[in-house]
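My convention is simple: the sequence line spells out the residues, with the fold written below as integer tokens. I include a record here:
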Amino acid sequence: MNKRERLKKEQLRIGPRIVRAWFETVINPLLNALRAENTLLQKKDWTWQFYQTGLEMIKPVTQYIDADAVDNLEQMLHFYPSLKTKIENHDEARDRLFQACRGLHTTIVSRSDLEDIYRTVTSQAKLSKSMEEMFASREASEHINLLTEYIVNNTGELPYYYTVSPLWNRYREQFLKVLGHPAVVPYTKKTTKAGEQLMRANEALVKSLKNIREELSLKHDVPYVGGIELSLKDTV
């Protein structure tokens, strides 16, 4: 569909009520979610979760909007097919980051010296809580996996209400050095690269959504946010 055909189709079928619905249920929620996602990516906080096996707060695009709004997104894509490519690029990059985080986690647990560091610091540490209180488990493997999750996510200091915060905050720098272990470095670089690729896909999608929103807003006299007064013709 060329630009002239698309514009003709819009003039025939798109009205202010449809634009308002797209803004409220698709475009604005996606822009808000993608901005939050970008903030996480800039901090290299991948929100990786080992036990849930996923990226908690970095999601496929359709999961950023209500399930009932997916039909509105599909309607938008009918008029803006190039947006579909941007969404696919985002989700493919997100999947690469997920795979990279999983590989990094596995490598840290199996091939780094994290377990030695853990045993050294826990044998010397004088902390306010026992290991069982901090990790809710007696199994050292459970402790290692949780620490690895924090390492993969480049976690900063934890708030006091995290039970493991006394151990993590005190020895955080030692734990994070594992990312520089010779066996781990290739996986660390792969994860960082995947995060950068997702950031670029994120930014391209945001730019496209903003351009579409501006075009629709000016053409149909619909504000980005807030209600509109419909004429009698509009409501018939």
